[in-house]
Amino acid sequence: MSVLVSSTEHAHPAHKLTAEHVDLAYDGRTVVHGLDLDVPEHQVGAIIGPNGCGKSTLLKAFARLLKPAAGRVLLDGRPIGSLPTRKVATMVGLLPQSPIAPEGITIGDLVARGRYPYHGPGGGWQREDERAMAHALDVTGLGDLADRTLDELSGGQRQRAWIALALAQETDILLLDEPTTFLDVAYQLEVLDLVVDLNRQEGVTIVMVLHDLNMAARYSDWVLAMKDGRRVTFGDPLEVITSGLVRDVFSVDADVRIDPATGVPVMTPDSRHSLRGRRAAGERG
Q: Whose CB among 67, 73, 140, 198 lies 3.0–4.6 Å from 160's, allowing a Cys bridge?
């Protein structure tokens, strides 16, 4: 079993994301082929696979930023492309891999942008916006930093600020594209701990693209493995992250064992310069 136990009792039902036989393409080149996925509600999931296998492209389709070339992406059983953009933005939030903010923007102003989907033409700032923004800052531990600029923050704090923006949208589904990129280990743990807290305490359905298989195993309820734009396997990390999977998907030999302290898989890759690789080379010599 996964180390995580997500709460299933929430004040309102979750929105449902589904991919049905989805093909996704750029400039006539198909990068995702016939993919099916029912995103489990109120859980944390990770999408893994080599660079260029279609992970980030799939998130864009789930966020209605890319129209399928074939098949359908459904939100609550309806084609997501048939729904108004503003409505989708109140149900699904996306944090891209390298978000860009205006120079000198404060944390408060950045997070306030998450309230834009709730404002019609000429709509002003309301008490509900203030409450949502304050809650997002509090949950991410940034309440005392609202007047600081984004440039002043550490890497982990900046990533928390972007997550706070997404939280201010008050969506039930949050898509995170490589949220730990460019962060050192301490900040990676800080961000992923926050993600799990959001899931357990707020009931947010989380879908992350991750490169670190050990982080995916430790922090996810489910894992989707992709290769060459296709779904390879889906399930509990214990079932998905195996030596065979790492070899088949990443073309890497690895030792995968169960961590007795956490009960989740831990992957140690082999290479020519690893201890095992050096010993093997010595034996051959």
A: 140
Instruction: Find out whether 95 and 177 touch, Cβ atoms under 8 Å.
Output: yes
pTM of the entire predicted model: 0.87
* Widest CA span in the chain: 76
Backbone φ/ψ region at 110: left (φ over 0), alpha (ψ -120 to 50), beta = alpha
Helices (H) and strands (E) in the chain, counts: 10, 12
CB neighbours of residue 176 within 10 Å: 26
Query: Environment class of residue 238 by beta-carbon count within 10 Å: exposed (0-12), middle (13-18) or buried (19+)?
Result: middle
Contact (Cβ atoms closer than 8 angstroms) between residue 77 and residue 41 = no
Q: What is the mean pLDDT of residues 203-225?
A: 96
Which of 233, 217, 232 shows the shortest CA–CA distance to 267? 217
141: enclosing H helix or E strand: none
